[in-house]
Design brief:
By secondary structure, the protein is an all-alpha fold. The chain contains twelve helices and no strands. It has two domains: 138 residues, no CATH class; 99 residues, no CATH class. Helix 1 packs parallel to helix 3 and helix 3 crosses helix 6. The protein is globular.
């Protein structure tokens, strides 16, 4: 299959998961729309990073298929929380192989796509990846985070306006209780991505999402976070709390120091301008 065939196949695959359950269908649609936007996001980032046309196609395929495992995951377990079901990235790789979706690509390109998808949700990227593999894995992780920020900020704001209990699948079933967990606070003040085991409530989850800036790889990605105001929007739905204020100030200082005043070269990585 080529990129167009994969897109058509994927739509048919997703349609098969739709049923008469409104909540179920909303969550399937949520991930379907997310996958389409990640495809566009990774193309935009790749263009700014000056990828060649062939590499842009590979990046788009990664973006489109990166969450393919989410549909079976939700249908089977009614959750998007990997720790309570199974690794959705690994599940997606199985589906891709089962349906031979990458049959028209070379073995090297198939390995590139599958490895990036397998690692897009890991806490850390393995150190033994080749430079080309590492670049695509980083690119996919950045594009995925950028759209997840859109999904969660839209969700939090709509929930606040409606005064409803939100969507348990988006919020991973976490309780909306007061306070911030000490482990989350320590992780973020040390500029580390929050460990899932340290997360105990919805405030922790929102702060984890703010802390994703520490795991971004490319300067254009960080510029997008800043320009779209994602962190400000998450802060607006967090409580007045000294720990939250301290974390938010620390993250903003990190962004200020990480972004070059003149914008920097288009292909520059965040870690190289710190």
């Amino acid at each position: 299959m080529n990129k167009t065939n994969i897109q058509q196949w994927m739509q048919n695959y997703i349609n098969a998961f739709m049923n008469g359950d409104g909540e179920h269908n909303r969550n399937i649609t949520l991930k379907a729309e997310h996958s389409k936007r990640v495809r566009r996001e990774i193309h935009s980032l790749g263009t700014e990073l000056r990828l060649h046309r062939r590499d842009l196609e590979l990046a788009e395929v990664m973006g489109l298929l990166h969450d393919l495992g989410r549909f079976e995951q939700f249908a089977r377990y009614r959750t998007f929380r990997d720790s309570r079901s199974e690794d959705h990235a690994a599940l997606g790789v199985k589906v891709i192989k089962q349906y031979k979706l990458l049959g028209n690509y070379s073995s090297a390109d198939r390995r590139l796509i599958l490895t990036a998808i397998a690692h897009h949700n890991r806490a850390h990227i393995p150190d033994d990846q080749a430079p080309r593999q590492l670049r695509f894995t980083r690119l996919l992780r950045d594009a995925d985070k950028l759209d997840i920020w859109k999904v969660v900020t839209d969700h939090y704001e709509k929930s606040a306006e409606a005064g409803n209990a939100g969507n348990g699948a988006v919020e991973l079933g976490l309780p909306d209780t007061p306070g911030v967990s000490d482990g989350v606070y320590r992780d973020l003040m040390q500029r580390r991505v929050v460990k899932f085991s340290h997360m105990h409530n919805l405030n922790d989850f929102k702060l984890l999402q703010i802390g994703w800036v520490f795991d971004l790889n490319y300067t254009p990605s960080l510029r997008r976070v800043y320009a779209r105001g994602y962190l400000d929007r998450i802060r607006a739905v967090l409580p007045d709390d000294p720990k939250v204020d301290e974390i938010y100030s620390s993250v903003n200082l990190f962004i200020k120091n990480a972004l070059p005043v003149d914008g920097g070269p288009a292909g520059q990585e965040v870690r190289l301008v710190l």
